[in-house]
Design brief:
195 residues, mainly alpha, Arc Repressor Mutant, subunit A, Tetracycline Repressor, domain 2, 2 domains, 9 helices, globular, transcription cis-regulatory region binding, DNA-binding, HTH-type_TetR-like_transc_reg, transcription regulation
Length: 195
């Protein structure tokens, strides 16, 4: 039977629509987690996303599934931002600084994530490995570009920088007077070559 080549179009359209809906759920969950922590009621996430609670559970059967999906979604967003910033920023150093701002935002908005995942150390290790696998190469590329442009010193490893920034973020979610982004900015400024 000839359908004129249209057999796959509705399915593709539905898949794209389902993917957009899932991303909207993840964005809504991330926003609620930032405001209220990972223990926020699922009904709050559903309200933010404009869907029913059942829709959340259809996509994410458990709270842990939702938390892991949000975490992965945010890691991907941070990873994808690196090349985009490098292409659109006036200098590689500016791209690095803007990416570090995003990285700080990512780190300080993880209210309660570690506590939730501690009960599943294998799950936490898997997420941490995913985090490193996706973000260290992005940071490396940004550092290499800034060093090649002569903007920063060339002896800083990505993981070293990311750990330093991570340490600056500890406690930032609990103290409104502490600006981790500002301190990370000072660190990035300090990478500049002085010659």
């Amino acid at each position: 039977m000839d359908d004129g080549g249209n057999a796959g179009r509705p399915a593709r359209s539905q898949r794209a629509d389902a993917r957009r809906n899932k991303e909207a759920l993840l964005d809504a969950a991330a926003a609620v987690f930032v405001a209220s922590g990972v223990e926020a009621p699922v009904r709050d996430i559903a309200a933010k996303a404009g869907v029913g609670v059942g829709t959340i559970y259809r996509h994410f059967p458990t709270r842990a599934d939702l938390i892991v999906a949000v975490y992965r979604h945010q890691v991907e967003s941070c990873a994808e931002a690196g090349p985009a910033l490098l292409a659109s920023s006036p200098t590689p150093h500016a791209a690095l600084a803007r990416w570090i701002d995003l990285f700080v935002d990512f780190l300080v908005t993880k209210h309660g994530l570690a506590a939730v995942l501690q009960s599943d150390s294998a799950g936490f290790e898997t997420l941490h490995a995913y985090f490193l696998d996706r973000l260290v190469p992005v940071c490396t590329r940004l550092l290499d570009a800034a060093a090649a442009a002569g903007e920063i010193r060339s002896d800083v490893a990505a993981l070293e920088l990311m750990r330093g920034v991570g340490n600056l973020c500890i406690g930032a979610d609990k103290d409104p007077d502490y600006d981790a982004r500002r301190l990370a900015g000072l660190l990035i400024t300090g990478l500049r070559r002085t010659e």
